[in-house]
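S1.2 Input.
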Amino acid sequence: TSTFSIYSFNANGLVHSVKMHHISSAISHRKPHVFVLNESKTNSQTAKNLPNGDYQIHEEPGVKTTNHHLYKWGVVLGVRKDIQVVQRLTNLHAALRGRIVVVDVALPQSGNTAHIHRVFGVYAPWD
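S1.3 Output.
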């Protein structure tokens, strides 16, 4: 049997280059099939700082906080390029903006078939 690995953690902000380098190195070393980074706290694309040569990156940027220049939430989900992403679900409720990324992936099975598996990258804040 083969395994399916997911690497997930709360980044608590992805704006510092040292943190991005550490995260990118950890992903490159572990080579999970899927990784999820929660709480990016940025509205800019972080994919350019991740091992995107090996992964398809799907991002839900952070949401601007009220009366402030900062951003909250944000989710990044990467799927290794040797796994087919069938679709990304984009028609999600507005309350989930900045909190969730959902993709369907095709996991190969014997007999030239595939099992469709839905992968959620979710940040669930207390509020």
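S1.4 Remarks. The mean pLDDT is 88.
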